[in-house]
Amino acid sequence: MSDRQLPSKRAYQSTEQRQSATVEAVVHLCAEQDPSTLTTARIADEIGLSQGALFKHFPNKNSLWESVASWVSGQLTDHVFSVADQYEQADKALEAMFLAHIGFIVRHPGIPRLMLGELQKPGNSAAKRIVRQTLANYRQKVISLLNLGIKQQRITSTIDSEAAAVLYLGAIQGLVVQGMIGGDIHSLEQAAPRIFRLYSASFQEIPDAPQA
């Protein structure tokens, strides 16, 4: 009986590895072209499979994109959140998370296109729901760190945490867009610390302007 189980176990591992390779191929290809134009034929060719073989691992294209969205969500939040969790001081955690996020995008430049592409699609696919939930969780993480910074007296109590979280994510998105426009995504890592310094100026209470 054990002899018959071994091939199925190897086959399962092979399928899992093939699925992982396919997802990573999609992320790579999205750095080169618009995700909406990416066909299963192109994806299959990238990993050396026929379309028929590709659909043995994914029932349809929607299931493939759902797997891609899940991979992106897991990789992004696990990597970025784990970096933030290494710091006790909330402002330092926010800075580390900001820089880690930019570094992650530099290594995976197709991810912003993927996420934006999913959000722009009509309907409410599983992949779109995953992207929305990922962004909601990320925003809540930023708000939590801002509120912690207030408790630690490292961030002014007058700050609007929700607005500051929007600005935080907007700064990242703005950097990414500029990198895509300029065609030099790697330059983002040099620009990111300067942008965060400007953002973190809002952590300090601004004195009232003197009366004229």
Give your account of this protein's structure.
By secondary structure, this protein is mainly alpha-helical. It is built from nine helices and no strands. α1 (2-30) crosses α6 (110-120). The longest helix has 29 residues, at 2-30. It is elongated, with a radius of gyration of 21 Å.
Task: Set down the secondary structure blueprint.
Layout: H1 2-30, H2 40-46, H3 51-57, H4 61-84, H5 90-107, H6 110-120, H7 126-151, H8 161-182, H9 188-200
Helix pairs in contact: 1-4, 1-6, 4-5, 4-7, 5-7, 5-8, 5-9, 7-8, 8-9
Number of helices in the DSSP assignment: 9
The major beta sheet can be summarized as:
none
Helix/strand order: HHHHHHHHH
Q: Give the low-confidence spans.
A: 1-13
- What structural class is derived from the secondary structure elements? mainly alpha
SS elements, strand count: 0
Average pLDDT score:
86
Strand residue percentage: under 5%
State the separation between the terminal residues, measured CA to CA.
Answer: 90 Å
**What does the oligomeric state look like here?**
single chain
Q: Give Rg in angstroms.
A: 21 Å
Task: Please give the share of residues in helix.
Answer: over 70%
The coarse silhouette is elongated
